[in-house]
Amino acid sequence: MPSLPDRTRTPGLRERKKAKTRMAIQQHAMRLFRDQGYAATTVDQIADAAEISPSTFFRYFRTKEDVVLNDEYDAIMVETFRAQPPELTPLQAMRATMKTVFGAMSEEERQAEAERSTLLRSTPGLQTAYIEQLTNIVQLLAELVAERVGRRPDDIAVRAFAGALIGVGLAVHLTAPAEPFEDYIGYFDQALADMEAGFPL
Questions:
Q1: Of the CATH numbers 3.90.1150.10, 1.10.10.60, 1.10.287.950, 1.10.10.10, which one belongs to the domain with range 1-62?
Q2: 112 contact partners, CB below 8 Å, separation of at least 6
Q3: What's the CA dihedral at 89, 93, 95, 100 to 10 degrees?
């Protein structure tokens, strides 16, 4: 289950090298998925393209699905959310966080994230794994929200709010058309704005 990162530590050389290797594995995997399809790509092929052994692959990712599901943005989102002005509500802080993080992406990063998002939406096995992963992300969000409002992560109101955020994200993920990434993020922000307004229907 995910937990909040330790803000008192600065990544050392070994951690930075591991992060670089992890990113390289993902980049090679996404290229193979694009060239020959997700289902046709094996862990051995990904390992070979990244010039590592299959056993090394499994030190970074538990499964092939994890290569697509995991990215570096979770930690960035956490720190950006924490940095939002204290007078913002959790929902306002989340909207500001999304705009900041996605607005800072380079064009290359946007294209990579759009490709990953499309793959998640179009691959049934990945969709299932993604939905399962969301149950863990509820806990991470509950910890963040609890930290901001001075309540416990297991407070039912905090947990329900975190679940509602995930529900909005899942709805957008499953229903947003395959349009440019900027439009997809726009749909997400509009859905959060509707949530902030009490979902007037």
A1: 1.10.10.60
A2: 30
A3: 160
Q: Tell me how far apart the alpha carbons of residues 124 and 189 are, in angstroms, rounded to a whole number.
A: 25
Name which CATH class applies to 71-196.
mainly alpha
Structure tokens at 118: 């499309």
At 49-68, the pLDDT tens digits run: 999 999 999 999 999 999 99
Whole-structure pTM value: 0.79
